[in-house]
């Protein structure tokens, strides 16, 4: 079975933004869906004051100095012309602020403090999305409301007072303001070199593993999606191996010319085609696991199929394909996936258990079908 390019193309798309005309001085409002550790939320953003024209706006790698405040705590709503300039501009040598992610918080940054946020790292997807298109000195207002009913009410004993408390978003949307004080230049993905893209891919993969290990499944899935989006743009930009070059050289080239391939032309920070496929397969396989745990069975199956296409020897991908197919009721495909897992790893207890379970389900179906046929002819 082959997954079309449409599946990967869908991962390239950011959440669809819709614009609507609203009354008053602010003519345009945008909305989209973002992820946070407790699930999905709808974000609505509108600009406060007149738009500014800056030389650049936040892009991947930009270090942004920002302040987020709860709307109820703002007595006089700031506008772009009233942003305080008492704090120093951010410099390229500074490091982004790091905060532990919590399912009890929708925003993964403190409130009422100046914070350094690195675009593309996914510390807070809600805030990163709001920063897109902002210029230095601008202020926007954004409202966050639950996209799904499942929200976490867990609390943290050592949470700071200025960090957003656990909220039940199903009851009432929360409104905030976001100020962009200063930023460093960044790059769009199409402006990056293959080396820069690959570094981001590996970083997102590492962050995804760390978040998954801490129970932040939504955050892990977001990291893997970001990595896959960038990896797709690296297609046909992988590094050539010496064997590739030698196979395409003309037969009449002398040995001296053939031996000109040196270590300087082999950049280890750019993946070979085999390494590219292997890492990409791992990303799809890890994403499949996240999607399975989040109940996104169809997406989990698609991701695992893509992983097995990229790396047919991936036992984890075949096993996850079997799991998703079984939950979807596609028992024959599930059985084939578990059998393939055992072919690659005969001592896999989990694959044996999965195969036993799917065979039991198939036997039950055969029994029920036999009874129905018996009633039809008797």
UniProtKB/TrEMBL annotation:
Keywords for this entry? Phosphoprotein, Repeat, TPR repeat
Q: Where does this protein have compositionally biased stretches of type Acidic residues?
A: 244-262
- For the region Disordered, give the residue spans: 75-97, 236-268
At which residues are the TPR repeats? 315-348
The source's superkingdom equals: Eukaryota
List, as start-end ranges, the regions of compositional bias called Polar residues. Answer: 78-97
> One Pfam match, by short name?
TPR_8
Under SUPFAM superfamilies, the record lists:
TPR-like
Which protein, by its recorded name, is this? Uncharacterized protein
Which organism is this protein's natural source? Answer: Danionella cerebrum
């Amino acid at each position: 079975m082959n997954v079309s390019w449409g599946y990967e193309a869908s991962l390239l798309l950011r959440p669809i933004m819709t614009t609507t005309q609203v009354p008053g001085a602010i003519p345009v409002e945008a909305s989209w869906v973002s992820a946070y550790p407790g699930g999905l939320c709808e974000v609505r953003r509108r600009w406060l004051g007149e738009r500014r024209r800056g030389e650049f706006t936040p892009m991947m790698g930009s270090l942004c100095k920002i302040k987020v405040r709860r709307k109820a705590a703002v007595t006089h709503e700031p506008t772009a012309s009233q942003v305080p300039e008492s704090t120093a501009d951010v410099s390229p040598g500074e490091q982004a602020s790091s905060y532990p992610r919590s399912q009890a918080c929708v925003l993964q940054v403190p409130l009422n403090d100046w914070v350094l946020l690195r675009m593309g790292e996914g510390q807070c997807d809600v805030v990163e999305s709001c920063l897109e298109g902002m210029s230095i000195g601008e202020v926007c207002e954004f409202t966050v409301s639950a996209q799904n009913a499942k929200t976490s009410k867990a609390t943290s004993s050592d949470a700071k007072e200025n960090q957003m408390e656990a909220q039940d978003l199903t009851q009432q949307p929360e409104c905030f303001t976001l100020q962009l004080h200063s930023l460093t230049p960044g790059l769009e993905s199409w402006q990056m070199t293959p080396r820069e893209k690959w570094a981001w891919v590996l970083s997102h993969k590492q962050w995804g593993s760390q978040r998954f290990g801490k129970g932040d499944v939504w955050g892990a899935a977001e990291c893997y999606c970001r990595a896959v989006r960038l990896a797709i743009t690296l297609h046909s930009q992988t590094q050539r191996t010496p064997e590739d070059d030698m196979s395409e050289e003309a037969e009449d080239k002398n040995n001296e010319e053939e031996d000109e391939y040196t270590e300087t032309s082999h950049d280890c920070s750019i993946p070979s085609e085999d390494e590219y496929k292997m890492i990409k397969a791992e990303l799809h396989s890890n994403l499949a696991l996240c999607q399975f745990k989040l109940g996104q069975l169809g997406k989990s199956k698609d991701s695992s199929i893509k992983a097995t296409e990229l790396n047919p020897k991936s036992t984890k991908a075949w096993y996850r394909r079997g799991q998703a197919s079984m939950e979807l009721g596609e028992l024959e495909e599930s059985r084939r996936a578990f059998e393939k897992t055992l072919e690659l790893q005969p001592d896999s207890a989990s694959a044996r258990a999965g195969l036993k379970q799917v065979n039991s389900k198939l036997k039950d179906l055969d029994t029920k079908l036999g009874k129905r046929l018996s009633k039809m002819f008797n």
